[in-house]
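Task 17 of the worksheet. Students: predict the tertiary structure of the chain below and write it out as structure tokens. Keep your answer in the requested format; marks are given for formatting as well as content.
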Amino acid sequence: ILRMRLLHKGWIFCVVLIIFLAACSGGGEVLPLVSASDPQGRFDFSMPDGWQGVTEGNISTYTPSDYDGSEEALRVLLFLSPTNTLDAEQHIDTAEPMIKDFLSSYLDETYEVIDQGEIKVDKYPAMKLDFAKPYQDTYILGQVVITAMPGMVVILLGTGIRADWEAFEPTFRAMLKDFHLISAFTPTPPQS
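Model answer:
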């Protein structure tokens, strides 16, 4: 009888856990997306309808129309820069400082990685890091995706206050899915 009670309690716990996890994973809906092609013709991308995109150098910033520039405001950044090599070792040596500089410009040491994984962006392998930091009585959450493309450094970074980010995350995933590199680096053969 004791085993039956423990088994019964185990099933009840599992059912409650499944219901809880299903409720937590509900997230937001994907916002309607519109084309946000790179002015330099390097990539195709989509952003939520009504958002604005600004490209300065190697960084494209996508924000809602009411973006106020504050740290907690929802935004997506896309960093794209050639490494000018297809040699794997040279690519890593060139890409590493670019990645560090970009991330240190937007994420301070108070952010902590809370999850990591691997995904694909435009059919290329990518590392995904979810991060968070305390902010007032909530958190600032986000995700950075670093893509391993030949001759190119591609980083997508999305952040926002917890409630906004959790509602926006399905849209961020759809934006990642819509990213397509148009012109990758192609080395010029040496002239003899």
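Marker's comment: Residues 6-26, 187-192 have pLDDT under 50 and may be disordered. The chain is about 30% helix and 40% strand.
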